[in-house]
Write a structure and sequence with these properties.
Layout: H1 3-11, H2 15-23, E1 27-29, E2 32-33, E3 46-49, E4 54-57, E5 67-72, E6 100-102, E7 110-116, H3 119-126, E8 134-140, H4 146-154, E9 156-158, E10 161-163, E11 167-169, E12 188-193, H5 200-207, E13 212-220, E14 223-224, E15 233-235
Parallel strand pairs: 7-13
Antiparallel strand pairs: 1-2, 1-3, 3-4, 5-7, 5-15, 6-7, 8-12, 8-13, 9-10, 11-12, 13-14
Length: 236
């Protein structure tokens, strides 16, 4: 939820007064100066306004769920903080620092990552019972056989987890040759999952002795990566 919307609905502060307070440096969130008109807030944030001598812990019901599309680059981890790696929050603009991420992409993967201000939306996307489709483009080091493609759909047991792929095919119809031992350069696949356990796709291919060369998520539910550039965000 936008801080401006929260102040307007809870404290009847007009948009004009809000912008004046921001310009004058009189609003603090969790001890930090608010300098963006698009600042987001979430449950249990600490809000302070010098002008009105207001100090409170935010307790709110999200009035409007927002979803942000983010094109995650390789080399960043999906985490609020990490002592050993760069995190996605180092790439996000200040107004998106309070967002929750939906699911994860590992450090070596790239593509679509959904983010939201609403914890309920996170649950809807992450819980297996909702069967939200996740679509990936994956490059592997050698052609995938028809037998292995079938194994992926039936499920592969790895470290106690049954890892399945709902659909496996090629972005180009000719890659079907690779599933029957065709040309060596045909190794790009399109995968659709209904759930995503930790390193789900990489573990499947490793169990079958394939190496994942590149992994990109291009869709989650109805939301598509489209032409969003690496490191960029878009509100939908």
């Amino acid at each position: 939820m936008l801080l401006r919307e929260y102040l307007q609905s809870v404290h009847s502060i007009s948009r004009r007064k809000f912008t004046d307070l921001v310009d004058q440096g009189k609003i603090f969130l969790n001890g930090k100066l608010v300098n963006s008109y698009k600042q987001l807030i979430q449950e249990d944030d600490r809000l302070e306004m010098i002008d009105d001598r207001l100090k409170e812990t935010v307790h709110m019901v999200v009035s409007e769920s927002r979803i942000v599309l983010f094109n995650k680059p390789v080399g960043y981890v999906v985490s609020k903080s990490d002592p050993h790696n760069q995190t996605i929050y180092e790439l996000l603009p200040k107004e998106f620092q309070g967002l929750y991420y939906i699911g994860r992409l590992d450090k070596d993967s790239h593509g679509l990552l959904l983010m939201t201000n609403d914890p309920k939306v996170v649950n809807e996307f992450e819980h297996p019972k909702f069967e939200i489709e996740k679509e990936y483009i994956v490059k592997i080091d050698r052609p995938l056989t028809s037998r292995d493609a079938q194994r992926m759909k039936e499920g592969i047991l790895d470290e106690g987890d049954l890892l399945k792929v709902h659909k496996v095919e090629s972005p180009k119809s000719k890659v079907k040759e690779s599933m029957t031992g065709g040309p060596d350069d045909l190794m790009t696949l399109r995968l659709i999952l209904h759930e995503g356990k930790k390193r789900h796709i990489r573990r499947i291919f490793k169990a079958m002795n394939y190496k994942v060369v590149d992994l990109q998520r291009i869709r989650e539910g109805k939301f598509e990566l489209g032409n969003l550039k690496l490191g960029e965000c878009k509100i939908v």
